[in-house]
Q: What sequence folds into this?
């Protein structure tokens, strides 16, 4: 599936925004206008279909961007890890959903302490996970909400057998310190053509329909059915019963989303700005952004591996990364970059990239650059 806005198989060239040379490369650049446009598209879609939208931070990890989402109507915050929840609790009076099984004393203790003052809910797919949360909640005399993870086909976390789904929901309702609140679904196996194919959603309904019916018959109708994943985001309404969407990558977008046609280049808000440090080898340049700046995530395009998309040089190909160096094949560029030239790169994976930096530069709607923290960087627990 070609990317939207591409001509002759290649995206239209864009110029690097006017960034002062005083800012050394590599650095992250986030364009406020694009972020807010993306947020607006998400909320317009959600409003049409009656979905609530928590501000999911697993990709951008930034309190500044969370506030953009809250200003647009986001209800609560969604995170991936317990320590992300701890960071985002600094926002104030906000509900927090941890969309990841909390295993281990450190995680459950953190979440139980947070739940004393905040409404905390956690995704779970086993009695083991719920037992740990229940014990921690009891120690702190608090209550933690539970979303049962439903496996819609990715085979990563969750259960799909209706009896098992009902059993876990009933367990959450009966364990002390827990409160059954609903279901969490992730559609990460749908991308490219599959993300828009009605047959893909028919397969999901074959799994989800019986489970939802069983829950309702058991008196366990979920108050919340939360679905996530960027590629299939704007087809989420095809999954019956969903009333919440968790959106991570779609706020920024990346080369994976772009390449599979789920966004246009004008919707990619995040770029790594890099400088050419060597052009000594014909047809090739080296940049100062290696795996420590771009991550080593790869994407296969036209039988060739790529590690990012160079916006100003669409014919270029980043084909190799060391820690501090990036190799770019510029042999097909009519006017290849030279040593000292800067370029902006759409990374393959926005979430991995954001987690490599302490700060990013927000290019505001007024054209100013504002240095912002990646507040939840490194929250692996």
A:
């Amino acid at each position: 599936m070609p990317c939207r806005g591409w001509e002759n198989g290649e995206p239209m060239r864009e110029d690097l925004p006017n960034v002062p040379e005083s800012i050394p490369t590599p650095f992250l650049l986030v364009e406020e206008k694009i972020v807010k446009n993306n947020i607006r598209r998400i909320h317009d879609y959600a409003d049409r279909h009656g979905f609530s939208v928590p501000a999911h931070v697993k990709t951008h990890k930034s309190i500044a961007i969370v506030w953009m989402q809250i200003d647009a109507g986001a209800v609560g915050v969604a995170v991936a890890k317990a320590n992300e929840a701890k960071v985002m609790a600094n926002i104030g009076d906000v509900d927090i959903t941890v969309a990841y099984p909390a295993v281990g004393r450190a995680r459950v203790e953190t979440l139980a302490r947070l739940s004393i003052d905040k409404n905390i809910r956690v995704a779970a797919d086993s009695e083991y996970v719920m037992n740990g949360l229940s014990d921690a909640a009891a120690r702190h005399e608090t209550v933690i909400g539970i979303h049962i993870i439903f496996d819609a086909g990715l085979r990563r976390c969750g259960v799909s057998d209706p009896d098992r789904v009902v059993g876990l929901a009933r367990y959450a309702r009966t364990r002390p310190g827990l409160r059954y609140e609903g279901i969490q679904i992730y559609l990460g196996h749908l991308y490219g053509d599959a993300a828009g194919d009605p047959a893909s959603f028919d397969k999901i309904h074959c799994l989800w329909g019986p489970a939802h019916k069983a829950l309702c018959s058991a008196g366990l109708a979920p108050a919340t059915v939360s679905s996530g994943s960027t590629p299939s985001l704007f087809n989420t309404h095809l999954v019956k019963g969903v009333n919440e969407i968790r959106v991570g990558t779609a706020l920024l977008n990346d080369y994976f989303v772009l390449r599979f046609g789920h966004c246009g280049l004008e919707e990619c808000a995040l770029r790594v700005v890099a400088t050419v440090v060597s052009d000594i080898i014909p047809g090739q340049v080296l940049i100062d952004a290696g795996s420590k700046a771009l991550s080593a995530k790869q994407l296969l395009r036209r039988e060739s591996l790529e590690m990012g998309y160079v916006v100003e040089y669409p014919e270029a190909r980043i084909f190799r990364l060391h820690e501090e160096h990036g190799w770019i094949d510029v042999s097909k560029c009519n006017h290849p970059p030279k040593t000292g030239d800067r370029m902006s790169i759409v990374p393959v994976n926005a979430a991995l990239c954001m987690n490599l930096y302490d700060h990013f530069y927000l290019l505001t709607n007024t054209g100013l650059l504002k240095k912002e923290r990646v507040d939840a960087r490194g929250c692996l627990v």
The CA atoms of residues 256 and 348 lie 5 Å apart. The longest helix spans residues 198-217.
